[in-house]
Amino acid sequence: MITVTDLRKVYRQGKREIVALDGVSLSVPQGSVHGIIGHSGAGKSTLVRCLTLLDRPTSGSVDINGTVLSAVKDSEVRAARRRIGMVFQHGNLLDSRTAAGNVAHPLELAGTPKETIRERGRELLRLVGLEGFENAYPSQLSGGQRQRVGIARALAADPDVLLCDEPTSALDPATTDEILDLIRDLTDRLGLTVVVITHEMHVVKRICDSVSLLEKGRIVEHGPLTDVAARLDSRLAKALLPLPPAEPVLGAGGGDVVDILMTGASAQEPVLTGVARRFDIDLNVLAGSVETIGGTQFGHLRVQLSPGADTAAVLDYLRGQGVTAKAIDPAEAAEAGEGEL
């Protein structure tokens, strides 16, 4: 597993200090995929560099399966890095080497016998779906195939952890899903612990078990994916279950606007019908989405009540049905881009 504790990284430019990471802590259990999402400048690249010991953290620790990597001596850094397989945005393959040659490279650096390298290379390329492509050069491969070679290379030294830095941002949507499904499958089959650095919520929804939102060097929201999605007020939940902007009827023509989040069994219940019958009111559905996240079904609805409806009573009733609900400002309902962080 991965345990990051109070990680800080401060860069100095003359007398000026730039705090890139400000007390980052997270824990990723073995065999799970954790997504770290954030905008450019949030600290994602610095976190990658500290996790891989390309940069020493100013303070705090990085622990992988009981070994504190941040405390290893400079002479032991290379051996420590072998515990982490790295998948890059563009594959970062060596153009002068074949697919098998790229996979072999980290094994050659480790002094692995040639016959073992050949067998391991064939095994890994078969594992990522590239059997028969051993002698192909990067220029002869598609973007998705190059990324598969990059994944095979990352697995060559049999690492404990796979760290994926924007692994699909350069790929088309269909290929993106293929690569994400491959990472998820490898995680489950090999028992890997995976950290995915991304700015795309689709990546998180597709393969992650848990997620952290990194902002200005701090983790501001985090948790298991299903728990985060169930927090109606959280920014991650809004990004996981986005709603399009919807113009409510203002003034005397329309009542209060209510957001409703249904989870699991409640997502399949006729909740709105129950409200309409119990309070003898009309409900105008302004927007809605249904998603399956982490194996759990979620339904997110935005509705407008009839004028004069007892909003407090409606909210109490909904909560009594195991549904998360809150009244919102009508102006909030009309805001665009709710699916963004």
From TrEMBL:
SUPFAM superfamilies this protein is in? ACT-like, P-loop containing nucleoside triphosphate hydrolases
| PROSITE patterns attached to this UniProt entry | ABC_TRANSPORTER_1, ABC_TRANSPORTER_2
Q: Give start and end of each ABC transporter domain.
A: 2-241
Molecular function GO labels: ATP binding
Instruction: Show the Pfam families listed in the entry.
Output: ABC_tran (PF00005), NIL (PF09383)
Give the domain of life: Bacteria
Q: Which UniProt keywords apply?
A: Amino-acid transport, ATP-binding, Cell membrane, Membrane, Nucleotide-binding, Translocase, Transport
Question: Does the UniProt entry include the keyword Transport?
Answer: yes
**What is the protein named?**
ATP-binding cassette domain-containing protein
Q: Which organism is it from?
A: Sinomonas halotolerans
